[in-house]
Specification:
The chain is α+β, with helices and mostly antiparallel strands. It is built from 9 helices and 21 strands. β14 and β15 form a beta hairpin. The longest helix has 16 residues. The protein is globular and about 75 Å long.
Length: 303
């Protein structure tokens, strides 16, 4: 191989041919999602994308911009979504492929008489990622507001990658511990019994976070020797403390017709307690489908 200005020449052994590859083209084959991610804090949340539902449905440029923002920030909002039940399924088709779970193809987030999950109550729900006990973990989540609470019920979002970055800078030992320690997550009810082992901070081969798995309601026993237990729980506390910091918590009251989509491998979500009726309908979408939808849409736009 010989590199020349703007290109790479490949001279094949025992073959009388030459291949020339443009450097710009080679760069374009790198993972586009990894290059486009931008972390955010509460102070920077004003730049998060809010788009009009009808525009995203019917205008390819608007849809591409919204999907790109969702991948970049891990979260994006829509306004003007019809306030009808199951419209969240139509919205999910903007992203890709719906993932059905024991909660169904879509689910109602509302106060119920006999809840099997804290989400189905009116009490405060701390920030978390959903379903870390499932294989695979659901990729993206959509929540469509149909009824807003009379009092309270603010939605809370945290960029887990931003928190992990601060943890790495300020407490490198804790970061390393969370990135190497497998912990058990479990969910059980009358019809379901699910268990999976995950690292709270998952890294790729280059050491960059690719997923955050944090759910203090389904975490079980850490798989660590007794003499490392203090190290793990110190790291866990350090991370959990930052996740609850006002520096990272973006709070917003979703109004009827608002919809939020977010990366469940990155953005943690929760809510404040509320009074009165409150109804959000949600669903999960496969993680790979979102990048695929954007890539196909860009090809169509470019012709």
């Amino acid at each position: 191989m010989i590199q020349r200005q703007g290109a790479l020449e490949i001279h094949w052994a025992d073959q009388p041919r030459l291949t020339v590859l443009a450097i710009d083209w080679l760069r374009s084959t790198l993972d586009p999602v990894a290059r486009e991610i931008e972390t955010w804090t509460a102070a920077e949340a004003s730049r998060l994308c809010w788009s009009d539902y009808a525009s995203v449905q019917h205008d390819d440029q608007a849809k591409a911009a919204w999907l790109a923002a969702l991948i970049r920030d891990g979260i994006a909002f829509l306004r003007g979504v019809p306030q009808v039940e199951q419209e969240v399924e139509n919205a999910a088709r903007l992203l890709g492929y719906i993932t059905e779970t024991n909660y169904g193809r879509f689910f109602d987030v509302r106060e119920t008489a006999s809840p099997n999950n804290l989400a189905y109550t009116s009490v405060t729900l701390g920030v978390h990622t959903d379903n870390p006990y499932r294989e695979p973990v659901p990729g993206y989540q959509m929540l469509h507001c149909l009824i807003a609470a009379a009092e309270g019920g603010e939605s809370v979002f945290v960029d887990g990658f931003s928190v992990a970055s601060q943890l790495r800078e300020e407490d490198a030992a804790a970061f390393a511990t969370l990135a190497k320690t497998l912990v058990q997550f479990t969910f059980r009810d009358a019809q379901t019994d699910l268990t999976a082992y995950r690292r709270l901070v998952k890294l790729d081969d280059s050491g960059c976070p690719t997923a955050i798995h944090y759910n203090n309601r389904s975490i079980s026993t850490a798989r660590v020797p007794a003499d490392h237990a203090e190290e793990f729980y110190r790291a866990y506390r350090s991370f959990a403390h930052r996740l609850r910091s006002a520096q990272f918590e973006f709070r917003v009251t979703l109004e009827p017709g608002d919809l939020v989509a977010f990366d469940n491998h990155r953005v943690l979500h929760g809510r404040t307690s509320f009074r009165g009726s409150r109804l959000l309908q949600g669903c999960y979408v496969a993680h790979d489908g979102v990048a695929s939808s954007l890539a196909v849409l860009k090809r169509a736009i470019q012709g």
